[in-house]
Amino acid sequence: MGLLDDKVVIVTGGGHGIGKAYCRGITREGGTAVVADIDEKAAYDVAKAIQDSGGKAIGVDVDVANFASCQTMAEKSLRAFGKIDGLVNNAAIFMNVPAEKGGWQEITEEAWDRIMAVNVKGLWLCSRAVVPAMQRRKEGSIVNISSNMAFNGGLTMMHYVVSKAAVVGFSRVLARELGNDNVRVNTLAPGATMSEEQPTEQAMRNYERTASTRILKKVERPDDLVGTALYLLSDLSSFVTGQTILVNGGAVLH
User: Fold this and answer.
1) Residues 54, 41: Cα–Cα separation, whole Å
2) Based on the number of CB atoms within 10 Å of its own CB, is 242 exposed (0-12), middle (13-18) or buried (19 or more)?
3) Are 148 and 192 in contact (CB under 8 A)?
4) Residue 10, H or E segment
5) Residue 94, SS3?
6) What's the pLDDT at 195?
7) Are the C-beta atoms of residues 65 and 122 closer than 8 Å to each other?
8) Which residue in 191, 112, 96 sits closest to 145, CA to CA?
9) pLDDT at 96 over 60
C-alpha cells in the first residue's frame, strides 16, 4: 500500500528539478502523476521514464499564465483518468526559467510583470481550471509552492520574493473558500535547493555556503522536499489546511 494509491495528481513545472522529484515521489507511492510543463519534451520525457519504471504518468504541455492552456491541462487529465485528486502548483520563474536579478529599482517592469504572471497569476489560473473537478467529488488537496525567501527577504530578487509571499496569502484565502467543499490548500516553502542536474562550481559553492548557515548542515536537494509534499497530498493530512510548512533544514524558523 502506498500513501497515494489511486490518487491522480497534477504537478506543474513537473518536467525539471523539484517538480520532477515530486512526480517521481507521487508515483512511487502508488499515485498517478500528470507531468505538466511549458517544456513539452521535458514533460513527456519524465512521464515516459516513470512509465518505463512501472509507474503511472502522462505528460502534458501547459502555460500556467494562460487560462485556456490550464483548462486544456485539466481536461486532458480528466479524459485520461476520470478525476483529479491533487494539484501541486510548482511552476515558477526562478531556476529553469531564470529570473532577472538586481536591486529593487533596477528590476525592469517587464521582468516584474513576467514573474507575477507565472508565479502568482499562474496559481490562480491553474486552480480555477482544476478545482471544479475536486468540488464535484467533495475532496482534493492543493499544494502551492512558496519559498524560504518570502520569509527572510532575500536580496536582488524583490519581484521573486514578493511573488512567493503572495503564494502564502493566496493559499490562506483559497483554503477558506474551499473548506466547505472538503478541498484542502496548503503551502510548502523550500529553502535554496540544488535543483540543477549539473550545477556549476560557483553554484555548488553558493549551496554549500547556504548549507553552513542552516541548523542541519547539508545542501538541500529535491528529494528533501518530496516527503512533505506527499504528506500534504495524502490522507495523512486530512485535517490540515491553510498552513505553511518551511522545509529548509532550519535556515529560517517560522
Assistant:
1) 20
2) middle
3) yes
4) strand 8-12
5) strand
6) 82
7) yes
8) 191
9) no
Amino acid at 166: A
Helices vs. strands in the chain: H and E counts, helices first: 9, 7
- Tally of CA atoms within 13 A in the half-sphere of 70 that contains its CB: 22
Q: What is the pLDDT of residue 19?
A: 97
Residue 95 has pLDDT above 60, yes or no: no
Tens-place pLDDT, residues 186-232: 999 999 888 877 778 888 888 898 899 999 999 999 999 999 999 99
DSSP-derived 3-state class of residue 238:
coil
Please state the domain extents for the chain. Answer: 8-247
What is the crossing angle of helices 67-81 and 121-137, to 10°?
A: 30
Can you tell me the distance from the alpha carbon of 4 to that of 233, in angstroms, rounded to the nearest whole number?
Answer: 8
Calculate the alpha carbon distances from 166 to 16, 40, 152, 213 in Å: 23, 27, 14, 26
pTM for the complete prediction?
Answer: 0.94
- Tell me the three-class secondary structure of 26-80, residue by residue: HHHCCCEEEEEECCHHHHHHHHHHHHHCCCEEEEEECCCCCHHHHHHHHHHHHHH
CATH assignment of 8-247?
A: 3.40.50.720
Q: Which residues are catalytic?
A: 160
Q: CA nearest 130: which of 43, 62, 193?
A: 62
Of the listed ranges 15-19, 54-58, 99-103, 225-229, the one predicted with least confidence: 99-103
